Amino acid sequence: MHNRIRELRKARGLTQADLAEVQGVSRNTINSIEVGRYVPSLPLALKLARFFGKPVEEVFDDRSDA
Amino acid sequence: MTAPTPERSHPAPGRQRPTIVPLVGVALGVAMLLVSWLAADAPGIGLAMLAIMLSYAAVMRYGQRFESVQLLSHDPPLDERHALIQQRALAAAYFAVLGVALIGFFWEIARGAPGAFTLICFVGGLTHMIATVILRRRS
Fold it and tell me: Where, by residue number, does the polypeptide cross the bilayer (chain B) (predicted)?
């Protein structure tokens, strides 16, 4: 699943550790989400989208041609 | 327009210090020493096992910079991804033990003498079935 977490995080000037601390997950989890190795649960995906002020569909995209 | 930054919810999970898993490791090491010393009169083996368990507990307690150690040492898991990894690792361990137990079971059957492996297969299989039924009703 593609996502814009890294792009949105960097736009805010946050490190992975900063974002992890705010979201209550480990830095490795944020890294795994950003590289597409781990797909977050719905609550975490919604929490991330809400944090960036975007609809969840703008942050995560499951279409293969995205 | 950017969304306001919310307040930090709580400290990052990776910074938490584990206590339960290292303590259980130490307790198991002491139990191994006592059993081998008192029951088998083999304190040397007991001391070796205690040393192994103390080393394990120390790694679990002080090796938190490595994510694998975090995964092994935190109960409950630090976050949802860690919980998923722990579940998958548990399933892998289950299948490894199951494989050995099945080999042992058929060996015992071939010898006509059901024993420990037969019991392990019975308990494991029954637990798997009961857990499936219970978890299905809960989900």
Answer: 20-39, 45-63, 89-110, 116-135
Residues paired with residue A58 on neighbouring β-strands, in sequence order? none
Q: How many CB pairs below 8 Å do chains A and B form together?
A: 61
Asked if the interface predicted TM-score (ipTM) of this complex is over 0.90, the answer is no
Residues of chain B in contact with residue A32, where contact means CB-CB under 8 angstroms, are: 81
Whether B6 has a pLDDT exceeding 70, the answer reads no
Instruction: Give A3-16 pLDDT, tens digit per residue.
Output: 999 999 999 999 99
* A37 SS3 class: coil
Chain-chain contact of A40 with B80 (C-beta, under 8 angstroms):
yes
Q: Residue A60: enclosing H or E segment and its boundaries?
A: strand A60-61
Minimal Cβ distance to B81: which of A24, A32, A52:
A32
Q: Which amino acid is at B103?
A: I
Q: What is the DSSP letter of A26?
A: -
Q: Tell whether A13 lies on the interface with B, counting CB pairs under 8 A.
A: no
Read off the pTM. 0.76
Closest CA to B69 of A58, A28, A9: A28
Helix (H, G, I), strand (E, B) or coil at A61: strand
Structural domain boundaries of chain A? 2-53
As given in the structure block, the two tokens for residue B43 are: 């304190």
SS3 A7: helix
